[in-house]
Amino acid sequence: MVRPTPRLTTLTLVLAATTTAHAGGWETVAREPDVMVMMRDVPGRNFPTIRAVAVIDESIYDLLAVLSDVNRYPQWMKRCAEARRLSQRGELEYVTYSRTAAPWPVSDRDAVYYARARVQLKKKLVMVRFKAVKDLRVPPRDGIVRLDKLQGYYALKILGPNKTQLDYQLDADPGGWIPTWVGKITAKHAVIDTIRALRKQVKKTRGWYAKRITRWKKIQDKLSE
User: Fold this and answer.
1) Which residues contact 103 (CB under 8 A, 6 or more apart)?
2) For residues 185 and 178, what is the distance between their CA atoms, to the nearest angstrom?
3) Could you report the per-residue pLDDT of 9-23, keeping only the tens digit for each?
4) Which of 2, 62, 198, 221 has the fewest CB atoms lying closer than 10 Å?
5) Beta strands 93-100 and 49-56, pairing class
6) Cα–chain-centroid distance for residue 216?
């Protein structure tokens, strides 16, 4: 029997994860051996809903550590010009501010969003859902369009000790003026570049979050009891 190569197995996992998405009217706009980006048009809006599924050769803990370090988002997240955690409740709930630099002549966008994580041990899954909220600590700024309609999620599923599936979806109305073609092209490249940068950031920061990861593992052990 011929054994599948790691790259073929990875692609199979991505394709399997996106079968349902295609049935829901999604269009594939970018595909690489270990990542797929899809878009779905929204009536009356010139910015599509975006979904990406990728398989990353890293542990779920290392990925979560980087994703939870909001202040460092500008170091690796495409076009993220500013990000900071405004408040946090325990390990699973927080409020974040972020600003996205838009290509000229489009104005920058920013958002305040609430996020909550849910751990599903039986499914080996961590699901983080987020949505825009109003927060007086960060009032709207001149020249920047505030995103009031934004929601989405990212889900991390354990495939192995050092292999994790990332499923990300963003549904946002950017408001203001953005040509449809600019929005789609910018979104597609931003997602691909961000996933590539995420891989590099995990390798770069490995070992930085040892205390945080140890704390998470203790919480997992308690949930497993």
Assistant:
1) 182, 186
2) 11
3) 444 455 555 554 555
4) 2
5) unpaired
6) 20
The closest alpha carbon to 188, from 69, 32, 71, 56, belongs to 32
How far is Cα of residue 165 from the mean position of the Cα atoms in its chain?
12
Residue with token string 């878009």: 39
Number of H helices, E strands in the chain: 5, 10
pLDDT greater than 90 at residue 221: no
Three-state DSSP class for residue 82? strand
Helix (H, G, I), strand (E, B) or coil at 216: helix
Q: What's the pLDDT at 14?
A: 52
Give the Cβ contact number of residue 42 at 10 Å. 13
Lowest mean pLDDT across 44-48, 130-134, 152-156, 174-178: 174-178
| Cα angle value 195/193/196 (rounded, 5°) | 40
Q: For the stretch 46-82, what's the b/e string if a residue is b when 16 or more beta carbons lie within 10 angstroms of its beta carbon? A: bbbbbbbbbbbebbbbbbbbbbbbbeebbebbbbbbe
Q: Based on the number of CB atoms within 10 Å of its own CB, is 224 exposed (0-12), middle (13-18) or buried (19 or more)? A: exposed
Domains of the chain: 9-35+44-224 (3.30.530.20)
Q: Where are the alpha helices (DSSP H) in 3-134?
A: 6-23, 60-68, 73-76
